[in-house]
Automatic annotation (TrEMBL):
GO biological process: mycothiol biosynthetic process
Gene that produces this protein: mshB
PANTHER family membership: 1D-MYO-INOSITOL 2-ACETAMIDO-2-DEOXY-ALPHA-D-GLUCOPYRANOSIDE DEACETYLASE, N-ACETYLGLUCOSAMINYL-PHOSPHATIDYLINOSITOL DE-N-ACETYLASE-RELATED
First-level EC class: hydrolase
Key words of the record: Hydrolase, Metal-binding, Zinc
Designated name of the protein: 1D-myo-inositol 2-acetamido-2-deoxy-alpha-D-glucopyranoside deacetylase
InterPro entries in the cross-refs: GlcNAc_PI_deacetylase-related, LmbE-like_dom_sf, Mycothiol_biosynthesis_MshB
EC number(s) on file: 3.5.1.103
Reaction equations catalysed: 1D-myo-inositol 2-acetamido-2-deoxy-alpha-D-glucopyranoside + H2O = 1D-myo-inositol 2-amino-2-deoxy-alpha-D-glucopyranoside + acetate
Residues the record lists as binding Zn(2+): H15, D18, H150
Manner of cofactor binding, per the entry note: Binds 1 zinc ion per subunit.
Length: 304
């Protein structure tokens, strides 16, 4: 007879690799400190590019085998992060990567962009009923940077919260991934001289599709001690992230902090106690009473 840990965190991401790039340190931090971390990935990432030459023919336009291959990459990434509970929304292959906004792949009958919102949210609701997470992480309404699957992941996750609220089982807090403008500013400056500059052609943070004013950030999760786990998880997604990527040189330029610190805005729930000029929380579970009604009755009854 097993019970789930008292702290339960659910993450809803669009493609394999988003979990590692966007929230890898946070996932590793909570897994390492005994929380139950559930990752839900909405698509297999079939439309991705392939940066491993010998696998190039797996691409969607040729063998169309990339999605299946990425299941293995995601499994390796989760292992690196210490995350054991991973699911695909509706089961592996239910929803297809929609590709970039405006492409014909948006119209594929299985494209996640075409998903029926209530049906897709229903799959997530089933997972919420089982795991009873107190905290959920997904993207903002622009999907952080505008990819249709990220926007759809936001819509599905927030619809699932509505459905869960009606059942009285909604997470107490919902966070959206975010990047403070001050951190982007620092990145812009640090990369000016870099040969592989992700900000090439960008003069100001105002030109980027993301960037949140610092006062609007709710939580700063310092998982600097997990930066190596995050980097290992990113390297597990070798088809997607070239070994020479700026994502790795970022670690060299900023040290472990840039890799290991992640930021969130709070979309649902009450902000807990924080610190610094804007009262940023340092724990996503801050302010929650974990022994109260938030606790999973399933887990409390020792039924699983
Ligand atoms: Zn993605």
């Amino acid at each position: 007879m097993t019970t789930l840990p008292d702290r339960r965190l659910l993450l809803v991401h669009a493609h394999p690799d988003d979990e590692s790039i966007g929230t890898g340190s946070t996932m590793a931090h909570y897994a390492a400190t005994g929380a139950h971390v559930t990752l839900v990935t909405c698509t297999l990432g079939e439309e991705g590019e392939i940066h491993v030459p010998e696998l190039a023919q797996l691409v969607a336009a040729e063998a169309d085998q990339l999605g299946g291959y990425r299941i293995g990459e995601l499994a390796a990434a989760c292992a690196a992060l210490g995350v054991t509970d991973h699911r695909f929304l509706g089961g592996a292959g239910r929803y297809r990567d929609s590709g970039m906004m405006g492409l014909a792949t948006n119209e594929h009958p299985r494209a996640f962009w075409q998903a029926d919102l209530d049906e897709a949210a229903g799959h997530l609701l089933e997972i919420m009923r089982e795991v009873r997470p107190q905290v959920m992480i997904t993207y903002d309404d622009n999907g952080f940077y505008g990819h249709p699957d990220h926007i759809q992941a936001h819509r599905v996750a927030m619809r699932a919260v509505e459905l869960a609220t009606a059942e009285g089982i909604a997470p107490a807090k919902v966070y959206w991934t975010a990047m403070p403008r001050s951190v982007l500013d620092a990145g812009l400056n640090a990369f000016t001289e870099a040969s592989d500059n992700p900000f090439a052609g960008i003069d100001s943070v105002d030109d980027l599709p993301f960037g949140t004013p610092d006062p609007e950030i709710a939580a700063r999760i310092d998982a600097t001690d997990q930066h190596a786990a995050k980097e290992a998880a990113m390297r597990a997604h070798a088809t997607q992230i070239p070994a020479t990527s700026w994502l790795y040189s970022i670690a060299g330029n900023f040290g472990a902090e840039f890799m290991g610190v992640e930021y969130f805005t709070l979309a649902v729930g009450d902000k807990g106690p924080g610190n610094g000029p804007y009262g940023w929380e340092d724990d996503l579970f801050a302010g929650l009473s974990l022994d109260g009604p938030d606790r999973s009755p399933v887990a409390a009854a020792g039924l699983r």
